[in-house]
Amino acid sequence: MNYREALEFLESPSRFSPKLGLERIRAFLKALGSPENCFPSVLIAGTSGKGSSCKMIQSVLTKAGYRVGLFTKPHLQSYRERVAIGDELISPQDLTRLVEKVVPAAQLEKTSLGFPTYFEMGVALAFQYFAWKKVDLAVVEVGMGGRLDATNVLTPEITGITEVGFDHMEYLGETLAQIAKEKAGIIKPGIPLVLSSQFPEAMQVLEKRAWELKAPLYFSGSKEISLLSWNLKGQTFNLSGKYGPYEGLFLPLLGEHQLRNAAFALTVLELLLKAGYTWSESHLREGWAHLEWPGRLEVLSSFPVVAIDGAHNPNKAEALAQALKKYFRFRKLILVLGVSKDKDFSGILNNFIPMGPLVITTQARSERARPASELKEICEKAGLASEAIPEVKVALFRAREIAQNQDLVLVTGSIYVAGEARDLYFPLE
Fold this sequence. Notes:
Blueprint: H1 3-10, H2 23-31, E1 41-45, H3 50-63, E2 68-71, E3 83-85, E4 88-89, H4 92-113, H5 118-132, E5 137-141, E6 158-161, H6 169-172, H7 176-183, E7 193-195, H8 200-212, E8 217-219, E9 225-231, E10 234-239, E11 246-251, H9 256-274, H10 281-289, E12 298-302, E13 305-308, H11 314-327, E14 333-337, H12 345-350, E15 358-363, H13 372-381, E16 386-391, H14 392-402, E17 408-412, H15 415-423
Parallel strand pairs: 1-5, 1-6, 2-5, 6-7, 7-8, 13-17, 14-15, 14-17, 15-16
Antiparallel strand pairs: 2-3, 3-4, 9-10, 10-11, 12-13
Helix pairs in contact: 1-4, 2-4, 3-9, 3-10, 4-5, 7-8
């Protein structure tokens, strides 16, 4: 098996339908030698901010000299982005080797419990990699929900839940309370839990579950944040901490939501200090100042200004729209917008309607992408000027052609759409 064949196996469309439950992943991992028991971990759930928070935690500990694994999803440009140690993505050779190893175990479980899903294959691959490379800690982002998510086989040092909002409602529930109940499934008896600021309906559920399991509670929303300055390369801010104020921190990410993610990450890092993972203020500063986390309100060019963001649900889109108003000055907004079939396109779009954008609808190279023509019809019903261009790169070329001086081109709605746009500027593989 070569690298391309390994990717084709992992990305087989037949395994993309979620099948929530832990029985299959437990049997699958057992057939692989139970790698999930071979490394300590931090497990982070939530609707918005969990990926960025995981990266912030990993970056600081990496600067402190630890071998820190990172499992996140989805990927922006390459599947390899999902599995990393420090700043190094899993190599094509290692990924191929591990796929060859997991295939027999997957086949073994196929008859009794069904073939592992796309996400379960990724979880198994990542856990195998972290065990093989003997990481000091793995920072793991939960996939969908929490209670029945494949990552929930871990017994972590710390759990965390970032902001809970509306997403994957067909699987997690129609109300915030129902969704929060699923997210709360990662809470473990006696294991510290970090909570970001939450809507009251969600907070009530999360706190109740923590009290039931006697999980010590820590709230990142109590940390004071002061934004000092910003430009298109990032923002400088002060952040209060348990061990003193941190002044003049720089983060190469835009948006007030990223400052809230930083407060959440710091709360987890403070608990890791108590658990024996030592880091200093210089590691915090350096880790965040040099953090590489593309596709999160990332500016790709200046003339015209082209930015990408993977906002794929109404909560993320709301944070993105607020960031546009605060951090950017533009005459006209030109949206290149594409979503997956299971996403709330109208809910995403509503956040940008007050800006009166011109919308170019598009679709990622995926069977799960919603047709650009359907999205165009929704835009027209909302009274927005729009055109449909199915191929992302062609849509971006069109947006740049239309853009005049002081206009902003924003590509969003899906991390995959954002990734295809980024390929034009920074091809990864």
